[in-house]
From TrEMBL:
Location(s), subcellular: Cell membrane
Assigned keywords, A-Z: Cell membrane, Membrane, Transmembrane, Transmembrane helix
PANTHER family noted in UniProt: MULTIDRUG RESISTANCE PROTEIN MDTO, P-HYDROXYBENZOIC ACID EFFLUX PUMP SUBUNIT-RELATED
Protein name as catalogued: Integral membrane bound transporter domain-containing protein
Keyword Chaperone listed: no
Homology family: Belongs to the YccS/YhfK family.
Cellular component terms (Gene Ontology): plasma membrane
Membrane topology listed for this record: Multi-pass membrane protein
Keyword Ribosomal protein on entry: no
Ranges where the Integral membrane bound transporter domain occurs: 216-342
Length: 469
């Protein structure tokens, strides 16, 4: 008991530090949501524009398209056009469902495929995807006819309002020191001979996988679930978003099902208290979104739970009994997850270990550059960024390690944990401007071992020992 007490203290402090920054980000995001929502309700009646305002604000806050003046101008120019396209797709989904589904699939394919063409095309893909995600949450977003603005202009104005308030609150929070300053995305280092052998490229494969998953979801949804097809399509979309390979999709599929099940059950209990009051329902939805944004860094299951809770409260349980809808929605979520998993596993699959080795290569390349005496300006910023990206891939591999311990001799999760353990020492060395020869040799040996899984872990362990020394 005496020895375990300091451990508990350290764990509590660690969790507190992990939660504090996401808490600040969640508060800033919800202020932007409330400001956008207030302006939207003042100019447009109906629930459609309000939902559009909330979804766009959450998406823009997370994607950081307001990173700089150029990003804001690009978003301000493209968002109105994208909003008009969303109106057209929404009308097609309502009046010509199969044509709308085909257009929806094509739009999502293009938004992912554009990642092949540089950072500007990647940002354009993010903007294209925003309204399509909104259509999944509420398929027929449209404004009431008695609003201040013509219904055709409402999505355009709402999109610009969301961009305005996200920018305002992010800038203010950074000026006050509540949020860290955003830096320009660092160019990723090329991995010799690794990505060039992948044909089609990873982005193209993921775009094709998304298109297949969405197509199957629309077919199954339209044929078997009539008006409730959106839950299947939404789940297939979610498990493929940010696809980092087969293992990542399998991991998110499981968390999506578990989180959605818990969220639906929780929504069932809340609906009995909230269904008589739209105001109470709205407050529960905003609270669910806040906790989802805050706790998302701790695990995807939290996000799935609270987003499902918000969607269930938004769409309501009428006119069917809650118990029947509970099982229906869980069934649709499970079907969507299975479709998404099958698409990732059998349609030009991307191995998660290949994606992981690319992230390891990027991190080691950043370390090599930052410790190279020939580099004129050495900064730990890029090293920290690549290690953050590597940490974002860790959860599925750690989960796989729990189930395969003793059956597999090579555990990719060990690669991740060993290199992440080098973070503090590496950043300190780089910040002091040191370029030790032994450290450069250890980094070079680890980079050479990337092609040999059996030797990679010893090389990374040697790198850690060198840094600790």
């Amino acid at each position: 008991m005496t020895n375990s007490f300091p451990t508990w203290i350290r764990l509590a402090r660690s969790h507190a530090s992990v939660l504090m920054q996401p808490l600040v980000e969640a508060v800033v995001t919800m202020f932007a949501v409330l400001a956008t929502l207030g302006c939207t309700l003042a100019i447009a009646a109906g629930s459609g524009p309000a939902v559009l305002a909330v979804v766009l604000t959450l998406s823009l806050s997370r994607s950081h398209l307001d990173r700089d003046l150029r990003g804001r101008l690009e978003a301000a120019l493209v968002l109105p056009l994208v909003g008009l396209v969303a109106i057209g797709v929404g009308m097609l989904l309502r009046q010509l469902p199969w044509v709308g589904a085909l257009t929806f699939v094509a739009g999502m394919f293009v938004s992912i495929w554009l990642r092949n063409f540089g950072s500007m095309a990647r940002r354009a893909g993010h903007l294209i995807a925003l309204p399509f995600v909104t259509l999944l949450t509420v398929p027929h977003v449209r404004a009431a006819a008695n609003g201040v603005l013509p219904p055709m202009l409402v999505p355009i104005v709402v999109a610009l309002l969301s961009l305005l308030w996200v920018t305002v609150f992010h800038v203010v929070a950074r000026r006050l020191g509540l949020l860290p300053p955003l830096t320009a995305p660092a160019p990723t280092a090329a991995t010799p001979g690794q990505e060039s052998r992948l044909r089609p490229t990873a982005s193209t494969r993921m775009a094709i996988q998304m298109a297949v998953a969405l197509s199957l979801s629309f077919v199954v949804g339209y044929q078997c679930f009539a008006e409730r097809w959106a839950w299947i399509v939404l789940t297939a979309f979610i498990v493929h978003s940010g696809n980092r390979g087969r293992l990542d999709v399998a991991y998110k599929s499981g968390l999506r099902v578990l989180g959605a099940a818990a969220g639906t059950v929780l929504a069932m209990s809340l609906s009995f208290h909230a269904q008589a009051s739209p105001i109470n329902t709205g407050l529960w939805i905003l609270a669910a979104l806040f906790f989802g944004v805050w706790l998302r860094p701790l695990g995807y299951a939290w996000w799935a739970l609270f987003v499902t809770l918000a969607l269930a409260l938004l769409q309501g349980f009428e006119p069917q009994p809650p118990g029947m809808l509970l099982w229906q929605r869980l069934e649709e979520i499970l079907i969507g997850a299975v479709i998404g998993l099958a698409s990732a596993w059998f349609v030009w699959p991307v191995r998660s270990t290949d994606v992981l080795r690319r992230r390891l290569a990027d991190a080691l390349a950043a370390m090599a550059e930052a410790t190279d005496p020939a580099t004129p300006e050495r900064s730990p910023a890029r090293v920290a960024k690549t290690l953050d990206e590597l940490a974002g891939m860790a959860a599925p591999f750690r989960a796989a390690r729990r189930f395969t311990q003793g059956f597999r001799t090579v555990q990719p999760a060990d690669w991740v944990d060993t290199l992440l353990a080098c973070r503090t020492a590496a950043i300190e060395v780089i910040a002091r401007g040191e370029t030790p020869g032994r450290l450069r040799q250890a980094i070079g040996a680890a980079r050479k071992s990337l092609r040999e899984p059996d030797t990679l872990l010893p090389a990374l362990q040697q790198l850690r020992q060198t840094l600790d020394g």
